[in-house]
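Troubleshooting log. The previous structure file for this entry was overwritten by mistake, so regenerating from the original sequence record. Sequence copied from the archived sheet and checked twice against the printout by T.R.
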Amino acid sequence: MQAGVSYNNFTPYQIAKVATRPKLACLLFFCTSFAPIDGRYWAAGEALIKNLRAQSPAFEGVAMRDYTYKDLDNDNVYEIIETVNKLEEGAPGWLNSEISPAFDLHRVYNYKAGKFQKDYRPFAEYVEQRIEFYKFWKRQIQNSSLLSEDSQELVKANKQTFIKELDRLIAAMEGVKNK
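Regenerated output below.
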C-alpha cells in the first residue's frame, strides 16, 4: 500500500484488486513473452542442423561449421545461424583466433510453415550489421597496426587474399540485402 493514500473508503476486494494489478501485469507479460513453440520447431531445427553438419567439411572427424540458435528479430522464435568460413575450411588452423571471425559468413535459416528455410529477407538489419562488420575488418586488414603482432604478420603475408575474401563476403551480403 502506498504511503499517504487512504484506503478507508475501499472494500477489501477493491484494495486487493489494486494491489495485485502490477503482479498480474508482470505475470501476463511473462506468460506472453515466451510464446509457446510447438515441439515440431525444435525437432525441425535439430534435423536441419544434423543434415547441415553431415554436409559440412570436417577436420579430424569434427564438422568445421558452427550452428547457433539466435532470435534475430526479437519475436521469440529462434533462427538457426550456420557459420561458414571458407578460408579456414581450405586450410584448417591457418587463421588465428583474432582474425578468423572476420571471414565468418552467417547463413540464416528462418522457421516458417513448420520447417526451417534459408531466408535473409526478414532480417535486413542483421544483414546490414554483417556488411558493416566486413567493412570494418577490411579497414583493419588494410591498416593492421592495431592488430596483434601475430595477426600483423599473417596479414602482411596474405593481405590480398584477405581483402578479396572480405570483398566476396560484402558482395554476398549486399546481394541478399537487395533481393
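The two ends are 56 Å apart (CA to CA). Archived copy saved in two places this time.
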